[in-house]
Amino acid sequence: MKSFFTWLKIILFSLFMVCCCVIGFIGALRPEYSDREQRNLTEFPSFTIDGFLSGDYTSKISLWYSDTFPFREDLILANSYIQQIHGLKTELFSGNNNTGEEIPTDDEFIWVTEPITEDNSGEEQNTEQPTEPPTLPEYTGQVIEGYYVKGDTAYELFYFKKESAQRYAKAIVTAAQKLDGIAQVYNMVVPMPYAYGMDKNDQNKFGASNCESAINYIYKAISSFNTQTNLQLPVKTVNINKTMEEHFDEYLYFRTDHHWTATGAYYASRVFLDREGKSYPSLDEYNMYTLEGFRGSLYRHTADVNLYNNPDTIYAYEPVGVKTVDITDRDGVTGTYPIINPNPQSSNLYICFMEGDFPYYEIHNPNITDGSSILLVKESYGNCFAPFLADSYEYVYVIDYRFYNNSLTEIVSEKDIQTVLFLNYLVPTATDYNLRCLEYLIRVN
């Protein structure tokens, strides 16, 4: 009898595995797109003799099979549930094995210029900027280098890099050099939510850098470079750390996504607009849209069941005086869209702000006729920030420096822009891809 049940288990398990294998090859059941990861899944590879002989072809088939297995997202979620039931995951950390670099408190900042020099042959070296964008890896969306999940909240972590921080500061001051006497340059670096919501001991345990100290270091570098370059219009830095800390209990950051909320962006915009001497509506004057069930980038990276069961709510605020924005996409096609889209056709509800990430946007408020203008140079954190500028300037221009190919000086000159605001959260200030894109926009030598 014992032998019978042993064989029965073997047969049933074998039948189950065969059924799974057969299901896996049913093309109609295989997904082509992942809503959770917001990407196209692996396509079946094309056959080549070289690929077959090298083994690359079969490796790609294996990747296709696993990446597009039927019901993959349900299976991933089920696995997360099982881990929770067995008490295997009360908290989750993923990140660099090392820690962020120590943030100096007494650094000397040296502004180094690189004029045209001569090589050993006596010929001048050409240091002019290239006419084509630099070779960059294909942009595939937010890359999370480290995260920490506890309960229903996830935090993206930041690792300070001294060389990158100085490189970022030099890029911003170089922009001010090129626009000196033409436009006032501002810079705002947004702190990350773990600075306020994550226990300090946990921050230290996982090597996360102190956000306030990192921002202060960047601003100190900018101040030093301002002095060394003798700018007529030195860069003005906008420090929002105190404001974000004071209002942190007001849902300033998402729990399942790496972005801040529109409420957080609103408080930050007030700090900037006060600095500019501009008026703006109070938060209750905006038309507010509510979008339920948002599961963002940190959920997509973790597939954590607690994040799945506790999605975020997006509160989006529509400007009072203007409702539409002209957007130019990566193919150069321009169209008119709502600044706030309450019904985005995507599982990524964050695109309700300005339709998502595009190279160029233009907002004209017909109720303001003083000729005022501002250029917002941003990554995706700027998407929910830009609408709060629309009731304070006649013209709001926005460029995403990751995709915009023309130079900063060209657009400022063409549009007669008076104010330029660089807005980044901390991670891009230490990310090579973002720095290279920013330097190309500014045409840093």
Describe the fold and architecture.
With 445 residues, the chain is α/β, with parallel strands linked by helices. The protein folds into 2 domains: 25-70, no CATH class; 147-442, no CATH class. 34% of the residues lie in helices and 17% in strands. An 8-stranded mixed beta sheet has the order 7-6-15-13-14-12-10-11, with helices on both faces. Strands 3-4-5 form a 3-stranded antiparallel beta sheet. Strands 1-2 form a two-stranded antiparallel sheet. A hairpin with a 4-residue loop joins β1 and β2. α5 (162-178) packs parallel to α14. The longest helix has 23 residues, at 2-24. It is globular and about 90 Å long.
Compose a concise summary of this entry.
The chain has 445 residues and is α/β, with parallel strands linked by helices. The protein is built from 14 helices and 15 strands. It has two domains: 25-70, no CATH class; 147-442, no CATH class.
Q: Helix segment count?
A: 14
Compute the number of strand runs.
15
Largest sheet: 8 strands, mixed
Please give the alpha-carbon distance between the first and last residues. Answer: 81 Å
Radius of gyration: 25 Å
Category by helix and strand content? alpha/beta
Helix proportion: 25-40%
Global morphology: globular
Note poorly predicted spans.
115-131
Topology:
Blueprint: H1 2-24, E1 33-34, E2 39-40, H2 49-54, H3 56-67, H4 72-85, E3 91-94, E4 147-150, E5 153-156, H5 162-178, E6 184-190, H6 194-197, H7 200-205, H8 211-229, E7 236-238, H9 241-246, H10 262-276, E8 287-294, H11 297-302, H12 305-309, E9 312-318, E10 324-328, E11 334-338, E12 360-364, E13 373-378, E14 395-400, H13 408-415, E15 419-425, H14 432-442
Helix pairs in contact: 5-8, 5-14
